[in-house]
Q: What sequence folds into this?
């Protein structure tokens, strides 16, 4: 019988000072932090799925290719933060201050932005969806997506599916912005065969597809 304690996931800070830290590539899901200073820290390529960061300070932090899904950011401050290729989905932004924040290729899905403060949105750099969009998929692409989702590590990452097991069309939209359909079909088949370790964001799939492309496999 294995009595190893279950590994804690995410960050657990209360009224802490964690400035200038590098959290890049970390799986920060289910983090629970209150009134903590993360100023000038690196959150690139992180998953904040189901995380609670209440009344925290993210001044000058970077969130490149981060996934902020089902998170509670109530009363946190993101002054001068930078968001690039970031997805906010079903996230609580009540009284969240975005003064001076920069957005590039950011998606807000099923997220009420009206209760946030100082959110300056350039419509050419931000997409807002009230609900999951539905896009027309070819039969071959749909089969490739479902094939990739049979990989245990892809399935665990929750990057290609929704909570009810359907296809995450936002993820597919992002992938189609980076790859031609045939490349994506071939690449997803390889993803299903080759991914053999845990990961937490769609950026990992994109990185592997770029490697396959450079190797002439796509």
A:
């Amino acid at each position: 019988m294995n009595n190893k304690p279950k590994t804690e996931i995410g960050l657990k800070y209360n009224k802490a000072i964690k400035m200038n830290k590098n959290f890049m590539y970390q799986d920060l899901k289910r983090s629970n932090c209150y009134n903590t200073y993360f100023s000038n820290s690196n959150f690139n390529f992180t998953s904040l799925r189901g995380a609670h960061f209440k009344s925290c300070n993210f001044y000058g932090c970077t969130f490149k290719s981060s996934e902020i899904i089902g998170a509670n950011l109530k009363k946190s401050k993101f002054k001068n933060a930078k968001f690039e290729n970031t997805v906010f989905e079903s996230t609580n932004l009540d009284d969240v201050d975005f003064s001076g924040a920069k957005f590039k290729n950011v998606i807000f899905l099923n997220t009420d932005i009206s209760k946030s403060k100082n959110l300056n949105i350039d419509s050419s750099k931000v997409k807002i969806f009230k609900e999951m969009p539905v896009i027309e998929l070819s039969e071959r692409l749909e089969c490739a997506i479902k094939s990739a989702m049979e990989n245990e590590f892809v399935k665990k990452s929750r990057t290609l599916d929704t909570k009810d097991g359907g296809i995450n069309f936002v993820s597919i939209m992002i992938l189609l912005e980076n790859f031609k359909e045939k490349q994506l079909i071939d690449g997803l088949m390889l993803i299903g065969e080759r991914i053999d370790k845990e990961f937490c964001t769609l950026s990992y799939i994109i990185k592997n597809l770029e490697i396959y492309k450079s190797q002439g496999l796509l």
Notes: The chain is about 25% helix and 15% strand. Residues 139-214 form one domain. Helices lie at 139-149, 152-157, 169-178, 181-194, 202-214.
